[in-house]
Amino acid sequence: MGLFDDQPVIDTRSLFRPERRALLEMLAQLTPAQWSTPTVCDGWAVHDVALHLLWVDISNISRRRDGYFGRPQDDPGDLSDLGTLIDFINELNNNWVRAARRMSPALLQTLLRATGDEFATWAESVDIHALGGSVDWAGPGPAPVWLDIAREFTERWVHQQHIRDAAGLPGTTDARFVAPVIGTFAMALPYALRDVNVPAGTVARLTISGQEGGTWTAVREDDRWVFGDRATRVETAGSVELDARMAWKLFTRGLPVEEAETQAVLAGDPRIVEAILSMVTVLA
User: Fold this and answer.
1) CATH classification of 13-172, choosing from 3.90.25.10, 3.40.50.720, 1.20.120.450, 3.30.470.20?
2) pLDDT by residue (tens digit) across 30-39?
3) pTM over cut 0.85
4) For residue 281, with 0-12 CB atoms within 10 Å meaning exposed, 13-18 middle and 19 or more buried, which class applies?
5) Which CATH architecture has domain 188-277?
6) I need a labelling partner for 271 at 20 to 30 A (CA). Which of 94, 167, 194, 248 fits?
7) How confident is the prediction for the chain on average, in pLDDT?
8) Phi, psi of 238 (to 5 degrees)
């Protein structure tokens, strides 16, 4: 049985279009000063993050829809090592942003409208119940396509929040967006605990408060952690409770663990607590 087989399917396919509309409506309001404002993404201003979102679309459409990976001589080779993969992604991202910085905000918005539509059309056509490749922050094994597509949605939504926070604008806090983002991030729970060696049957719990959140448990088996039954109330060896805004920022490296520790409700085995607080749902 696969790790995610008994988890509720998170279907984000219908969310890409409204999320992109919200992004474009927001970008159209920005002043020149706001476009130049630094964000929490190291070294990137608002303009850079928007450029990155365009690259995310272009890269995904080219690879996923068109099966195009560039020139044979640019093949990066074996990317099975996580560190090598992260370095490769960082290089691609930074090369794109450096090269595209002379693109005007007006042209950028036009292109984001076009690529957003093309990616959404592709996403709406996929079989989310099939088994796909790995979602690396949730584990090295094959993952259901619904998790892969949901991961793509979280990247777009989170970067929009980065822009909104930097520009001093309200976030897109609609529960229809936030709930699937939080649910997707929670899929990293067992993998985050992988180095916590405790007796079989030990239970860890993550709770995200509010209507966007929920409760997820992980249970230690002989050699790995797996998801527990969300409907069962069991005694936990370690737990973390935090609100949705704190959670998405923490899990995407936008909030230091030390700051989260002062605001979250923590209980039990410090090894479990530390592992959950250190859960990361981005690669680069």
Assistant:
1) 1.20.120.450
2) 999 999 999 9
3) yes
4) buried
5) 2-Layer Sandwich (3.30)
6) 248
7) 93
8) -160, 140
What is the per-residue pLDDT for 169?
96
The candidate with the shortest Cα–Cα distance to 206, out of 175, 245, 236, 174, is 236
Give the distance, in angstroms, between the CA of residue 64 and the centroid of all CA atoms in the same chain.
18
Tokens for 50, please give them.
Answer: 């928007």
pLDDT at 231: 53
Which helix or strand (DSSP H or E) is residue 204 part of? Answer: strand 203-209
Domain spans, the chain: 13-172, 188-277
Q: 105-117 burial, b if ≥16 CB within 10 A, otherwise e?
A: beebbebbeebbe
Spatial CA neighbour of 80 closest among 131, 130, 133, 128: 133
* Pair of tokens at residue 145: 């396509």
Determine the average pLDDT of the residues in 141-157.
96
